[in-house]
Specification:
Layout: H1 4-9, H2 11-20, H3 27-60, H4 63-100
Helix pairs in contact: 3-4
Length: about 100
């Protein structure tokens, strides 16, 4: 299996190789899914970092601040739960196409 970094850097070469080997691989779609996957992963990681920060602040806050921080935490948790299924779907499609890409001849 080819490394995605190699595919990004040599997309024309990889696409031509797929055509020569008679493999039905959409390299453009693969790269779009890769970009979307990376963006979603970064977004989810940022949300998780924000959630961790809020958890630390909740422990040190007084009761009134705590209520507000808990609400913020719930909003962040909801964003994460909405983003994770999309990330899994995009990753699944990405991996399916990546596995079809043949090695270079």
């Amino acid at each position: 299996m080819l490394d995605i970094k190699f595919i990004r850097e040599n997309k024309e070469k990889v696409q031509k190789n797929c055509e020569n080997r008679g493999t039905d691989c959409d390299i453009e779609k693969l790269l779009l899914l890769d970009e979307r996957r990376k963006n979603l992963l970064q977004y989810i990681e940022e949300l998780q970092a924000e959630k961790n920060k809020l958890n630390d602040l909740i422990q040190r806050a007084d009761s009134e601040e705590r209520k507000e921080l808990i609400e913020q935490g719930k909003a962040v948790k909801e964003k994460i739960s909405k983003s994770e299924p999309e990330f899994e779907y995009v990753s699944k499609n990405f991996n399916e196409i990546l596995l079809k890409v043949p090695n270079l001849t």
